Amino acid sequence: MHSAKKLVIKVTAGADAPERCSQAFTVAAVAVASGVEVSLWLTGESAWFALPGRAAEFELPHSAPLPELIESIQAAGLITLCTQCAARRDITEKDVLDGVRIAGAQVFVSEIMADGVQALVY
Fold first, then answer.
1. Pairwise CA distance, residues 17 & 31, whole Å
2. Which residue of 19, 28, 50, 90 has the fewest CB atoms within a 10 Å radius of its CB?
3. What Pfam family does this protein match (any one) (predicted)?
4. Residue 89 structural domain
């Protein structure tokens, strides 16, 4: 069985596709809890969850609360907001949750091309 050293997850869905969105955050949180190095990328509509308070507005029956998932991911993982997605939504570094970085495609590509990395897109 292949064992990834790092898991990079790109989530493109937000409140527009709540199940897909929740799955991405859940998988990231479970991976972190399992000791896997995780890098979660917020793109598209999920970009809004980089802002304080936005995750608390998200609801999906039978799923873990998004703020709790984000907290657990941040405890040992990295959350990145896509540069272009942030710009399209007028989100700047000063607007985002503590610990969230803003970076672009070049950083994403370098992360997913590294040895021992598995990548998922939701």
1. 22
2. 90
3. DsrE
4. 6-121
